[in-house]
Amino acid sequence: MDASHETGTDARAERAPTSLEDGCAIVRRATAADAIEIAALFQLEYRDSSHPFQTVDDVSAFLSDSRNFEIVAELDDRIVSSMAMAYCAWNDSYELGRAITHFDYRRHGLAGAVMQPVVDWVRTARLGQVFFGFPRARRIVDLCAALAPAMVVVGHDGGRNVADGTRETHLIVYAIPPHGMFEHVAPLGPVPFDRHRLEQRYYGPLDARPVPGSYPPTCFVGETSGTSAAFESFLIDYAPRSANRALEIVGDSARAGRPMNIGREIERLQRLLPEVEHMTATVLADKTAVIEALWDVGFQATAYLPAWFKLEGRRYDCVQLSKCAHRTTPSTLGFDDLLIRLGQELTDPRAAGPRARS
Known about the structure:
With 358 residues, this protein is of the alpha+beta class. It has helices spanning 3-7, 35-45, 56-64, 110-124, 138-145, 195-203, 258-272, 288-296, 336-345, and strands at 16-20, 23-29, 69-75, 78-88, 93-101, 130-133, 152-156, 161-163, 166-168, 171-175, 183-187, 211-213, 228-231, 234-238, 246-252, 278-284, 300-311, 314-324. It is globular, with a radius of gyration of 20 Å.
């Protein structure tokens, strides 16, 4: 079936003209025939990177999944900009990203021209319960804030990614679309950070209305892949050939004694894989002892993700933590002030005081 019928979008919107100083770009949904040109554009702009669009096969696989949406801007029959919404089945979410604009056509408003249309495809089809993204520049953060639904800053990735051989810090932006109807459960007992600040900075801007309740026994959550493997009580995801040398803990056996053993397990993991330069762990927000144990072995909280984990019709808050083993300072593109604010909010959970445990 034609995508315009699937989403209820007028077919004319597939080729909407966008004015530029030097011509008129056509904004349309990408097709399988565009894979070679899109891959070439990414290879031109993202050398030696951890970006998911490394090859033509990567782009083709993405476009072959009808749940993914990619918008391109075309000028004189040449693709000069692109933006996508990628479906994440493990938690029924959509990632806004895979953004690229040819260097010669930047600062013409193309990023803004493709962002809202690709979000509209997903929103109109009422797909995905939460939206998120990893902007690498302040201008894109500002554009995300102006979207419908607005995407708010909830954290950063701790310098996980590499582009052109340079490690970068990306912010994490987040939205709950109006069609995201689900039961949002907030921790019933202690939480790792100040409750008032959580409501002010995260729940309020997202129009989230969680109901306190019990959480599942799982500690670590994440998306598994073909590179996922078991290590002691962890399930980890690690691709040794990736430019960022990043490892993620994506699951566990939910053992009762986990906080007592977590430090030793992390140390053994680091000895086994000394080349790892970045580690990420996403933990259910009620697991305060686990979060504190990770803090003790060098992790820092970098994001608070409301309604991130989905289980049996309910969604639960998570805290994302990262640990950097690289010696370089990740670059940032205009959002140092936001990183300072996040650092003040996502402090050591034991420093949050009694209000965090009320």
